[in-house]
Write a structure and sequence with these properties.
Blueprint: H1 3-17, E1 19-21, H2 22-29, H3 33-45, E2 50-51, E3 55-57, H4 67-72, H5 75-86, E4 94-97, H6 101-113, E5 118-121, H7 124-130, E6 137-140, E7 144-145, E8 152-153, H8 155-161, E9 166-171, E10 175-176, E11 181-184, H9 187-198, E12 200-206, E13 218-222, E14 228-231, H10 237-245, E15 250-252
Parallel strand pairs: 4-5, 4-9, 5-6, 9-12, 12-14, 14-15
Antiparallel strand pairs: 1-3, 2-3, 7-8, 10-11, 11-13
Length: 253
């Protein structure tokens, strides 16, 4: 059995049983304990499972990975995704840019060649990156600043975002369930993301493959609400089916 197929079966077993042991997986797949441990370590690194007492269990839905760790995770993939997304943004466009490390990667690409963009953001890191291009107009939302990642959230942020109707919304997300649900960890952040979706003429979701099947506690919406999904690996079949049903373009870089 190929490693990719084995990984998918392990994820499915964990989700259906809440816990599986290393010993049971060795017997099921007829491979060495070292192979299963390596599989579990890779899946845990991708936030697909959580290592636990000689086996694996479902990842916690209430705790996100620390911001500094997320910045370094899948960095090459995020850069490739950002390069691909930026090609869909014309000069002189207006756009929302969301909280998250992938939108920050997109900002770093946009400043290189784009001209006359007008950006509304609730991400201090994005605003700092974009202001290095003197041809951009950057509008920073008000609200409560989160020390952990420079995100701005709260009722004031929500009211501010709702004042605008822009060409594009670029959002990040913590997880995409197999039924197409968009998931995140912070209720206040999710409300702002929903406002961005509602007030953008086109919505682009930029995610690396580790977000497919990842668990998080707050439901944001569904991938059927998107106008394009850009990622680094083909999504699982269940998610691909939903994209096809709703004629949502998928770009794999």
């Amino acid at each position: 059995m190929k490693q990719t197929t084995r990984h998918l079966k392990i994820i499915d077993l964990v989700q259906n049983n809440d816990y599986v042991s290393t010993e049971d997986l060795v017997k099921l797949f007829t491979v060495s304990p070292q192979t299963i441990r390596r599989d579990l370590n890779e899946l845990a690194d991708d936030n697909k499972i959580r290592r636990h007492h000689g086996g694996a269990t479902t990842p916690l839905s209430s705790v996100n990975t620390a911001y500094d760790a997320r910045k370094s995770m899948q960095s090459n993939q995020k850069n490739s995704i950002a390069e691909a997304l930026a090609k869909h943004i014309p000069n002189e466009a207006t756009l929302f840019m969301d909280i998250g490390t992938t939108p920050e990667s997109v900002a770093k690409v946009l400043i290189k060649e784009h001209k006359s963009l007008k950006i509304v953001t609730n991400n201090i890191n994005v605003a700092t990156i974009l202001t290095s291009n003197k041809d951009f107009k950057v509008i920073l939302a008000g609200g409560e600043v989160r020390n952990k990642d420079g995100g701005i959230v709260g009722e004031a942020t929500l009211d501010f975002i709702k004042q605008f109707r822009l060409d594009f919304g670029i959002i990040g997300i913590s997880g995409i369930d197999y039924d197409g649900s968009l998931l995140d960890f912070d209720y206040h952040e999710v409300r702002v993301k929903q406002a961005i979706i509602e007030n953008s003429r086109r919505v682009f979701l930029a995610v690396d493959h580790t977000k497919f099947g990842r668990n998080a506690m707050v439901h944001l919406g569904n991938i059927s609400e998107l106008d394009m999904l850009i990622t680094d690996k083909k999504p699982p079949e269940a998610i691909t089916v939903i994209l096809n049903e709703h004629n949502i373009p998928l770009e794999v870089v």
